[in-house]
Amino acid sequence: MNINVLLDWISGEHISLVLFFVGLYGLVARRNMLKSILSIGIMQAAAILYFLSADLAENSVPPVGESVAGQAMADPLPQAMMITDIVIGIGVTAIALTLMIHLYHRYGTANWQKARDKRRE
Known about the structure:
Helix content is 72%, strand content 0%. With 121 residues, the chain is mainly α.
């Protein structure tokens, strides 16, 4: 298979779907709290990549600065939404890491199942 054909087929949307399912696998298959938090971060990055690359026009110019007549401008709404998503994701990650550290100090483990079993004792 020609590499150029493969590179033409691969887009941000395809990469984002693969990343999302890698994060989903990490979330479902791993019991470690830190790995779960990292998997959620991977899923968030995949969602950001998907929304920024979906419906992207080939020759569009940024909506900031000088515009050239006849060229389509990129839609600024997905960019603004993804900046908001990044800020919210940072907050969620910080809170999740804080809770993980608290649970680790309380139960002595970073494993979800072991912490639940120790809580029931």
